[in-house]
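Before a colleague's protein record goes any further, I have to sign it off. Would you go through it and say whether the fold makes sense for this chain? Take the sequence as given and treat only the tokens as open to question. The record follows directly below this note.
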Amino acid sequence: MGSLFLRLVETMPSPRQHGIEKRYTSIDDLLDNATIDIVYVSLPNHMRTPAVLAEAKRGKAILSEKSLATTMEDSKAIEKAVKDADVFFLEGLMYLTHPLMNKTQELLLEGRIGTVRGVSGYYSANIWKKANPLSMG
């Protein structure tokens, strides 16, 4: 396991305290390591596309935080790169395993809600202006 720190801070705990064997200061050094099979991308939204494109090009499996990209053009570039490289790619959606979803599934499976005829949902965090103003979400 390795970690990439774009900014090294003296007060950061040693990666070894958390079972991280090696700390990288360059994404290229990390991606050039043949022992790394999968990369978890937790960069800010506007930095994900170049990172994912580089990872796909080097044949790494990729788990990326959402949102996938900040523009449709970037989303299509990522899709093409992943397909061309034939690498595993998954965009993380935490709500699939959120306790609220687990409880909802439990209630449905127990039949405590009754017959579901439709579902309407709304996520109330209105952050698109700050998170992805170009793609509105």
About this structure: The chain is about 35% helix and 10% strand. The chain has a mean pLDDT of 81.
